[in-house]
Amino acid sequence: MTMYIPTLSDVIDAHERIKPHIHRTPVLTSSFINSLAGAELYFKCENFQKAGAFKARGASNAVFGLSDKQAAKGVATHSSGNHGTCLSYAAGQRGIPCTVVMPRTAPQAKKDAVRGYGGKVVECEPSTSSREAVFAEVVAESGAEFVHPYNDPRVIAGQATCSKELIEQVDGLDAVIAPIGGGGMVSGTCLALSNLASHIAIYAAEPEQADDAYRSFKAGHIIADDAPDTVADGLKVPLKDLTWHFVKNHVTDILTASEEEIIDAMKLIWKRMKIVMEPSSAVPLATILKNKDLFAGKRVGVIVTGGNVDLDKLPWQ
Amino acid sequence: MTMYIPTLSDVIDAHERIKPHIHRTPVLTSSFINSLAGAELYFKCENFQKAGAFKARGASNAVFGLSDKQAAKGVATHSSGNHGTCLSYAAGQRGIPCTVVMPRTAPQAKKDAVRGYGGKVVECEPSTSSREAVFAEVVAESGAEFVHPYNDPRVIAGQATCSKELIEQVDGLDAVIAPIGGGGMVSGTCLALSNLASHIAIYAAEPEQADDAYRSFKAGHIIADDAPDTVADGLKVPLKDLTWHFVKNHVTDILTASEEEIIDAMKLIWKRMKIVMEPSSAVPLATILKNKDLFAGKRVGVIVTGGNVDLDKLPWQ
């Protein structure tokens, strides 16, 4: 199967297509955190995005790019994270069906979030084989369009609109850093910046305990983790061919942080910036604070990927 | 002693004076919360203000309005809340001394916050008599200017800049609601709106368990609570003559909420709006949700007063 690599014009089309359905999120700064880091950090706040995560961008681009005929059959995905919620949001905006296959063991809050936007949750057993079987059944019955959480050119073109906005909002950035799990946001960042501002260095930030992208990057081929465990639960998934293409070709380096560093960075942001964001979103700041030389005096864009966190189970408690 | 009532020109002067030292904070909205409330709510986010609270406005106005001669002797206050931190911030901006008298039993985080901006903490025993004695000594020794947390025309003129900004940022408001403790923010709101947009109704929101302003408003004279206890710890202090003047003359009504309603509203805002704010700041939304008829279909400004909360001791845990 030939892989379609999305282009700058896909990003521009995506931005026009999704503008009515997403927020142009604000960029926040903290003089306290700047003085700690010895750099100027510009936080692009996708935690304020519709449905609480940047994934509303890619999901909206996929949903609103469908023909009326395909759209009538709906969309489907398997995700117990933000992609499921965001696909449900986007489908609700278009008024079409959305089915999300999720392990029956997934948190109730995640199921409720999908349903809150009008989507349907179909439960599977917590295994890859069950998920694939149940998902195949859903698609066979409904004819729904599969929207992969990240390994999909429509999704990556949608995520790319985030960095496109960021460079419209902040002049003279030297670098942009984003967390990496499956690589959707980082691929979008690569797609936007390599075309629009190729002098900006792109860093990916990853938990040490789920460092498959780091090891893949060093090895030169995709390595998947075996059951990684990290507080940054949005970052456990592996790279796939399309995201690997962007990471391999456009990322300057991948930096990692320990669980404690991630939690400390998260708490620091909550405390000083007064924003609620996910553990995954704290990984970039954690890596900046442990690599100060690399960023000293630089103007750095930091993608805050999402704000959907269980307020009853905060990681420092 | 004749009471000086600040005027519109004091507010305009204050705004010019403090602009270099404060943020023009953003106004956020949530379609989910709007649909719950049946109204359009515009949250003025003073949790993003310098030092994490609206009190940076009044403190900055007092500090930057001093003559050079007085400023050289510094400023002083007694406050274990945001006013102490914000006065320390403002004094640090001007490069003058600041002393905050605080009970030795005050939370370590509050002492650290004052010191973090360069202020000096002087401890007293946790009693009014000790506080007054220690404070008198500080002022006698240093000649520092006393800046009261709210019963001070300079402070009220400074707080008034918040609602002045809000009506510049949002057109056509029908009402503005703010929490009430000592009444500094509400008085500032009254001062700004009675002069600039007198058709806007002004509501104050108060915890049931510290409802001295509510009872004062109904009785027609100041009634102080006897040791009130509420999760909204910024709202335990009583009205004073200057704030009572504004409340009595310009407030449409005072609404109250239970502890549970306040905590639920706080958690709702954190969860849906992804912002960190204090329990005190949740009281307005709590009262809106229990008085839906009053606000149905209206455009309502909601002052989010501050974001300084102990992340290790959240009230829903």
From TrEMBL, chains A, B:
Its EC number is 5.1.1.-. GO terms for molecular function: ATP binding; L-serine ammonia-lyase activity; magnesium ion binding; pyridoxal phosphate binding; serine racemase activity; threonine racemase activity. Pfam families: PALP. GO terms for biological process: D-serine biosynthetic process. Its cofactor is pyridoxal 5'-phosphate. Residues 18-306 form the Tryptophan synthase beta chain-like PALP domain. Keywords: Isomerase, Lyase, Plasmid, Pyridoxal phosphate. Belongs to the serine/threonine dehydratase family. This is Serine racemase.
